[in-house]
Amino acid sequence: MRRLAIAALGLTALLSLAAAPTPPKALVDKVRAEINNDVGSEDDDPRPIREPAPKMFSRVDINGDGITDWRVDFRDMWGWCGTGGCQQELWLGRADGGVTQVFGTQVLEFKMTSRKTGAVLDLDFHGAVCRLTGSEACPRRFIWNSAEAAFDPAINAKGEGYLAGLPVSPMDIDVKTAPPEIQAEAQALATLCAIAGGKREAPPPVGRLPDINGDGVREWYVGSQYGECLDMTEPSGEPEDLLIMVSQPNGPFTLAWGVNDPDIGIDISSRPAVVFQVERPERCELTPKTCPRKPMRWDPASRKLLPAR
Question: Measuring CA to CA, which residue among 241, 243, 245 is closest to residue 219?
Fold first, then answer.
């Protein structure tokens, strides 16, 4: 009987090993490069190359196309967690055997629900993302957009559609992959900063916004909500911190609104989404939840975002 039990345990272990997910080499190579990007560059005594742990990888279904997709969980990887949670990544499997990253950021909680029409992500971020304290919940939902092969922000599980601040980007976007007019505006912001005698620690970020002019096309932003042109000698020449670029019929994205020292919010519970200019808490002497919000309206004639009346 003892021998039978041992044999059964051995068979169970073998079956478990056989069932363990085996990520494609291309994905393992990408994650290995990611976790070792700071190893040996300037150190006299560089750390040994770290290998991704097999348990970091799990099979998921992002878009219902029958090709295996992958989640990469960095919770047990040193240096990939902080007050904002741990790095989580999603990689879309391709027919050629390759993978494309479609999600990558730090989250406190991560829940993914697969559907034939595309996955739903229910996440909890550090409270600061929602202009709250770090201990307060910041739930955000994303739904897979098959047309654009990307995750879009959606009304969260609590029925809340107001997003304080810029929408959380599912992953950083390389400005070189953005439309030419977006690249040009990013370069212009960097140039204006230099002209003002300032410096930027990094190129102006770019990202996507929900549709705000009603044509069904997602918009773009350039810059951020934080003044990133530092140590200016000519403050009067400070470039705008945030630009919102809106789609136009059969043409490039055009500048609809530029603002200095902004604090904004976006309500996605309506279609199209509504942009709000928000008074900063330190100015209104209230909490972020109660600071005045001024809605902006889309003006088709001027193709601008204007204060609503």
Answer: 245
Q: Which residues contact 264 (CB under 8 A, 6 or more apart)?
A: 165, 166, 225, 242, 275, 276, 277, 278
Cα–Cα distance, 16 to 23 (Å, whole number): 16
Beta-carbon count within 10 A of 232 CB: 18
Query: Residue 274, Cβ neighbours under 10 Å: how many?
Result: 22
Type of residue at 292: P
Calpha distance 115→10 (Å, rounded) = 36
**pLDDT tens figures, 191-250:** 988 888 888 888 899 999 999 999 999 999 999 877 788 887 776 667 788 999 999 988
210, 218 contact by CB (below 8 A): yes
Q: Tell the residue number behind the tokens 């003044």, with chain if given.
A: 227
Tokens 């272990």 locate to 13
Name which of 54, 58, 82 is nearest 70 in CA terms. 58
Which of 229, 237, 223 lies closest to 198 in space, CA to CA?
A: 229
Q: Are the CB atoms for 35 and 80 separated by under 8 Å?
A: yes
pTM of the model: 0.83
Cis upstream peptide for 203 (omega within 30°): no
* Burial label, 208 (beta-carbon count in 10 A; 0-12, 13-18, 19+): buried
Residue 1 reports pLDDT greater than 60: no
Cβ neighbors of 3 (< 8 A, separation 6 or more) are: none
